[in-house]
Automatic annotation (TrEMBL):
Compositionally biased intervals (Pro residues): 46-55
Protein name: NodB homology domain-containing protein
Organism: Paenibacillus allorhizosphaerae
Chain intervals with Polar residues compositional bias: 27-44, 94-103
Signal peptide start and end residues: 1-28
Keyword Endoplasmic reticulum: no
NodB homology domain residues: 155-335
Region (Disordered): 27-117
Amino acid sequence: MKKTARSFILTATIAALLVSCSSNREQAAQVSKDTPGHSVNNQVHPPDPVIPSPPATSINTETPKDDKAKEPPMKEPVQEPAKEPSKEPVKTAPAQTATSSVYGGSKESSKSDPGNRKELSWYYMKKKKGQVPDFPHETKSFTKDMKALWVGTGKKVYLTIDTGGPLGDTATLVKSLKDNDAKANFFIAGYNVKKDPDFVRTLVADGHLVANHTMTHTDMNLQTDEQIRKEIQDYEKLYKEVTGKDIQPYFRFPYGKYNTHILKLVSDMGYSSVFWSTAMRDWEPRKNGAEDPYNDIMNNLHDGNIILMHQGSPENIEALDRIIKAVKKAGYEFALLTDIDPPK
């Protein structure tokens, strides 16, 4: 009886051990199935170690500032807020006059790509009073078929007055020019020609030059070639309708924004693009009133000076009579762009 009981206990123990082993094998198999590792030769390996990503690095996208402060580049003022042009490295250049280098490239060949549409904005680097400023480095790559001028010759000043914004006090403007027997060059947007055609007819009758400034005064970098041609050709037709005369072949880019492709396109249409060697921030109120435009011009007076002035600035109109008298007293005469000698 005791032997039978011991046999029963032994048998039960063995059975329990077998059940336990079987359960362990099933659990191991389930672990192998659920673990996010990878299988090699039917063996389960732990998942690849997780390597934490490095912290995000802050990238400074601002343009580095020069170590030395520079005078801000002079760009064409606008009648509405606009971006300031990027500052180009200041390079000392010899004084330029209205030779082939002013109208276009002085060399027969050029490395510049006539199809280049990189946006450019005109500016200059002011020098001491009486000295011709330095101009953008890209002028060195202008070819002969990119007709442009930005400074004239001798003891002459070329007053250019842009009207892409308000017409301002036209009566005082006309009177100041007539009283001082001074001639000026006007770049009037087409919509202003339509607004006051009598003003344009008066300017032409008084012997001033009125030139092409496009119909809509739009940044031409944003336009197609077809749109650009239409802007210029429509202006030609309007000028003819208003004055009965053919327009003089001078052109100014709205806001002074252009690219070499457009410069060549305008040249191919028979125009010389006119930039400048003196300008001012006259699209906004002047802190010292009419004293500011007077000082801006007189402190940068130089031979062949092409002055950019905006008609919509009341301070400009108020200072004009005094400016003309002072420029003449300094030994300069006011001239038309047609007086600038063409390249030899």
